[in-house]
Structure formats: C-alpha cells, structure tokens
Amino acid sequence: MRSRLWAIAAGAALLLAGCGDTGSDPALVSSPTAALGGGFGGIPAAGTHAPDEVVTDPDSGLRIAISRVEAVPSIAGTVTVLHFRFENPGRDPLPARGWTAPVLTYGPSDMPAAHVVSVSEGYGADVPGALAPGTSQELKHAYRVPRAELTSARVSVGSVIWEGDFTR
Questions:
Q1: How far, in Å, CA of 33 to CA of 132, rounded?
Q2: Cα distance from N-terminal residue to C-terminal residue, the chain
Q3: What is the pLDDT of residue 59?
Q4: What is the rounded distance in angstroms from the CA atom of residue 104 to the CA atom of residue 111?
C-alpha cells in the first residue's frame, strides 16, 4: 500500500511539473499594485509632473523620465509600453533598490491598466545592479491598454506622478 501511494504521489508531481512548462514566455498579466518607490538611489521628491518632464532626486541627483510611449505587438496582444530612463549625472554609483511596477490609470474614472510582464520581451524587468556615474539605463513596462486612450492618464511610482496626455 505504501509503495502504491508513493507511485501515485510521484506521478502527480510529474504531471504538475509538466503543466507549468509551456516552452515559451507566457506574458503574465497581473492587476496593478501600488508602487512602493525604489529604483537607483531612491525615488525623487513627491509631486505631479507633465508626461515629458524629467524628475530629479535632490539628494542623489538621479533623474527619471518617461522617454517614450508606444503601442507594440506583444505575445500578450497589442500593449502600450512606457520607457523609463534613469540617468546618474553624479560622481558616485547609485545602488539598485527595489523598483516596483509603476501604476498606470487612465480616463475620467482613473481606470487601472493591467501590467504585462514578459521576460523575453523585456517588460517589467527589475533594476539590475548599480547605475555607474555618468551613465543611464532604460526599463520598459507594458500595459494592456490602447495608447489612444491615454489622452488623460496618470503614471504613479511611489509619491511621484506623471499626469497628462501620453499620446503625444
């Protein structure tokens, strides 16, 4: 009886292990979660900024901007990709800190857009390593929302908000 139970358990484990492997990147889509801040050397001071505005942390000098917004075909369907550019104009490296997914809301009712994570397409990646002095890095975050609907939108990262028309 004991060997039969072990055989059943082993078979179930093999079956479950095989179910998770699709051989491709499934582009996980998750509901938006509140961003906690982070990035290189922390997040700049709180406030609301225009979509094309560069936000600077007064302590570290870190500059963050949304450098590009584009509609892109993805394995999750057409998504809107926000490109976040981090720049370190200082003399010291800025250590990586926990960058969380920015929250994107749009329209008159601030509808949250689903955040799309795809490792193979580079969407939703974490901050890798420190940002060396005089260098920049770009992170891409994708959302399941048509770009045309972002005429009145808000992107929140911790206490920093970019707000306005992201279709320009």
A1: 29
A2: 69
A3: 79
A4: 8
Residues 6+ apart with CB under 8 A from 21: none
Three-state SS string over 48-108 comes to EECCCCCEECCCCCCEEEEEEEEEEEEECEEEEEEEEEEECCCCCCECEECCCCCEEEECC
In whole angstroms, how far apart are CA 40 and each of 3, 25, 28, 60, 155? 54, 27, 25, 9, 18
Q: Give the model confidence (pLDDT) of 28-76 as tens digits.
A: 444 333 333 444 455 555 689 999 999 988 878 889 999 999 999 999 9
Tally of CB atoms within 10 A around 39:
26
How many angstroms separate the CA atoms of 159 and 37, rounded? 7
pTM strictly above 0.85: no
Which letter, b or e, does each residue of 136-165 get, where b requires 16 or more Cβ atoms within 10 Å of its Cβ?
A: ebebbbbbbbebeebeebbbbbbebbbbbe
Task: Determine the pLDDT at residue 95.
Answer: 81
Based on DSSP, count helices (H) and strands (E) in the chain, helices before strands: 1, 13
